[in-house]
Request: fold
Amino acid sequence: MPILRRIANPALEQPKFMPPATDPGARPRVVIVGGGFGGLYAARRMRNLPVNLVLVDRRNHHLFQPLLYQVATAELNPSDIAAPIRHILRRQLNTEVLLERVMAVDTASNRIILRDGDLSYDFLILATGATHSYFGHNEWVNFAPGLKSIEDALQIRSRVLLAFEKAEHEADPSRRQTWLTFVIVGAGPTGVELAGALAEISRLTLTGDFRRINPASARVVLLEGTDRVLPTYTRELSEAAKRQLAQLGVEVHTGAMVTNIDSEGVTVGTKHLPARTVLWAAGVQASPLAKSLHVPLDRAGRVLVDPDLRVPGLSNVYVVGDLAAVRTDGWSATWPLSERMALTSPVSPPRQFRREFTPPTTSLARFGAKLRFRFDTATRDPWPRSAERLRLHIWAG
Reply:
């Protein structure tokens, strides 16, 4: 039975452990934690249901993460890829937006623990996504920032632009080249995008802006621990991406395992690469909130969920997006950690869910699939570049 039919009419399948409502006629409260793609789209699709909906997020804006790298490289402004959650949901009379940080989930008492108080729920949808993973080397955080938020993007933008300014004032040639060396660790979608954008900035955007340095002499080095860039894509796409990066002047090193990062650069194996700007795009891990559910997780900390995105053993708790690892009898897959990957992967959610699920289409599992599928069918371009077009597809309702 689809999730939203159960939510709209709890009598159809009421979890046995759920305490009865004080008012028998009261609407069930649905709490969504996270205002990203999964959380926001679930909220939009429940706008006409007889429920009291509360969306909780630690930030007051929805962010289109696939274009964060363009903010980081000064091609877009933050306002081009973000919009206030309250404004997006302003016409939903059954919805309340709460700016709060969720510390834990207490499934025994059906409540979430907030930084200041708690909030009870009848149904819970967790959509808190993923964060950086430095593979046990958290001391690298200050030397190699990742890219997950607007704050991250602005920090990277500042580091990149200041590196050119420092090089302009540096008299020593070797130290100047250190400022003009940019290292990106990780050749997944984010790393490839950053490397390409930095190469374009140095060779095209900044041409003629400096007097003592030639920005085109900057080195952009992309390090990948596996045997090819974009390892989650097909080999043909990986080779095509590598050729395009080479044409832009990016130095690609595969099979390069980073052993240390400090203020002076990166160590690959036993070889030290001097660089004053190092960016991290190598690893992600699920939101730590998943641990508070006390249910089985995969190696990346994602919650193992049923095909309808329910948590096994918790009938009123659902996990969506990057926090979920979907398992079925015939296949095993996790939700892609990139919108682009969701559109191009051979087992992308739209294709997989069309094959695995049947109408009615109110299943929450299909909501996330439909969100990703809209980008492909509405634009005929899985990598749209225009912020205005992106706004149309996300927020036009």
